[in-house]
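User: For a reading group we're discussing how well predicted structures match intuition. Take DNA-binding response regulator. Before you show the prediction, I'll give you the sequence so everyone sees exactly what went in.
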Amino acid sequence: MNAMSEHDTPTAPARILVVDDDPTVAEVVGGYLERAGCSVEHAADGPDALLRAERRWPDLVVLDLMLPGLDGLEVCRRLRARRPVPVIMLTARGDEDDRITGLEMGADDYVTKPFSPRELVLRVESVLRRTRTAAAPADPGPPLRGGDITADPVTRRATRAGRELALTLREFDLLAYFLSRPRTVHGREELMREVWGWDFGDLSTVTVHVRRLRAKIEDDPARPRFIRTVWGLGYSFEPENEEGTE
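Assistant: Thanks. Here is the predicted 3D structure of DNA-binding response regulator, as structure tokens, for the group to look at:
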């Protein structure tokens, strides 16, 4: 089964950079991804990952958190400083702080070791599908507006009061979803399904991205006026800048 058939062509498979210092993990992950139709390159440490990415920019990076030379968080930061790239982090630690830190650095998802290689392939497929759909939407529609915030699905450019917002791919998708459905309560499960395209996953991914988005669009993220928390239910986008509480 070619898991990437919806968004890759036989002559242009998705380029995946797998960064892990464990050769067994790298071999297993690489094998599953290749069978899914991807072109896989392996780096065993942080500096090598940056060098390989510079030579051949990947479509997605599977990145271990604990690496020699440079850790995964620093590699993610340096990659994202160059240009956007989807990142799925691997970690052998179950500590929630590590997962949250990775998401706050801009990782699109994380998988905790030991993990199912098949599950990882499904997550890679999901992220790639969302990325390529965002790059060439079939019917992007007109710019979305709420208060003084605008998000243009064609250019994927978001502004507030005319000032451009530096949003990641997922932050833009989340903002666009909120703008297209204002004054409606959205549960985290709904956001995970509709924005991430996942029917499974840790819901803290949504929580972290909402927090990151608030930090970029709110005057005071501790007292959000646009993205309001509806306790026990989820989040609601209020375009008229009504005072809210977190």
